[in-house]
Amino acid sequence: MNIQDLEPYIVFKFFKEILNIPRPSKKEGKIINYLLNFAKEYNLQAKTDKTGNVLISKPATAGNENLPTIVLQSHIDMVCEKNSDVIFDFENDAIQAYIDGNWVKAKGTTLGADCGIGMAAELAILASDDIEHGNLECLFTVDEETGLTGASELEPNFFTGKILLNLDSEDEGEIFIGCAGGRNTIGKIAYTETATPENVVAFRIDVKGLKGGHSGDDINKGLACANKVLNRLLYPFFDDIEINKFDGGNLHNAIAREAHAVIVISTDKVDEFKKHVEKFEKDVRYEYRSTEPNMAISLTETEKPKTVIDGKAKFSLMNCLYACPHGVLAMSREIPNFVETSTNLASVKMDDKYITVATSQRSAVNTSKDDACACVASCFKLINAEIIQSDGYPGWIPNPNSPILDIAQKVYEETFNKKPLVKAVHAGLECGLFLEKYPELDMISFGPTLRGVHSPDECLDIASTQKFWMLLINILKEIR
User: Fold this and answer.
1) Is 305 helix (H, G, I), strand (E, B) or coil?
2) Domains defined along the chain, listed by start
3) Would you call 144 a catalytic residue per the annotation?
4) DSSP characters for 234-289?
5) Are 250 and 146 in contact (CB under 8 A)?
6) Per-residue pLDDT tens digits for 142-156
7) d(CA 77, CA 141)
8) Residue among 28, 114, 137, 144 flagged as catalytic
9) Would residue 77 show up in a list of annotated catalytic residues for this protein?
10) Identified catalytic residue from 77, 81, 143, 430
11) What is the C-alpha to C-alpha distance for residues 135 and 432, in angstroms, rounded to an integer?
């Protein structure tokens, strides 16, 4: 079966079309053009703002003209992650999706169901002529994944509806009414190149096979951070190695799945180092035996590089990576099993002047978010690194008395004969930013089940997509 033949047919038809269109964050021109051409094809009004956000409006079905206007919202960009052995150009290539049992997956890359399936549902509603609804405004925002730019720079009065359904959640059967705020902290370690010493052997060390995942949704699942694992492996031989390269992770909102380093070590320490790597792999695999069963560490002798980073930069990098926190910092005292505050040691990248260590902090409590940022920044200050911190984005404070929540709960129970879970999510959603600009908004967020988001393991549950679609169209019918 082809993806476009799955049920609900109209949703997967548009999802397949979306998969064919490159849409990296900050490079959404092709998908914007697709949306505008879609509006023309279906004779719908469409407009964009200066940031690139798109709004497509559809009149109410007959007899529903006086019902409240509903805003359906999803973001149009996707996280672009791939396995290191996969050749793929996210700016030009179509996602290679396939069906594996009850899941839709991609071949070696992120799938982009976050938030492509939300987009597809919006387009399916806009294209349908047999779904009852009031006036609709479908909002498609840009650059959610790397900066929430579309939401933060949304123009005033761009839409008129007072009820917003965000279609960017990842657990069917759960309705979200709040989310964490976030902020990024980056440390830049200056370095110089020095000549590689004599009587050394060069090795490349790779940490691979980790699950990675969403730095909000998955931060409490006991997953390994490849940057931490690699640095921990090297640290006992701090005095015996020199570093030519250290590279790990990619995106601030993804847990690092892969990392590698090129190092040199004195000839007389080679055998000891090999034994250390072999033992370390066994030990760390045992530690993560239940959460990272595919972790692999390889040691490969390689050509000796001409230069290594200077000793001060090596000291700063290795001690900073060890000291910098990663993972859950605090659990909520009010909401059972809810992560309140966390930090993600996202990536380590080198150019010809700096080693850049990127991290991201999240919290449902703004003061705790600032405290986490200060904690990470202090690690960078101790090594005199240049520190860059983003302005961040606000959390979405839950409103348990939300009228649209009452409707959604009622509809879910009537449709599926069970109650949905009502939750807040540790991931960042655009809703907090919308609320700043449109304080009268009544919002909820829901979606089908996704797993492995922000990693090449991302997959979409087909059966949950059918339930997501039924819930959406039934909520639209119920709003009065």
Assistant:
1) coil
2) 3-180+395-478 (3.40.630.10), 183-389 (3.30.70.360)
3) yes
4) HGGGTTTEEEEEEEE---TTEE---EEEEEEEEGGGHHHHHHHHHHHHHHHHHHTT
5) no
6) 999 988 999 999 998
7) 8
8) 144
9) yes
10) 77
11) 24
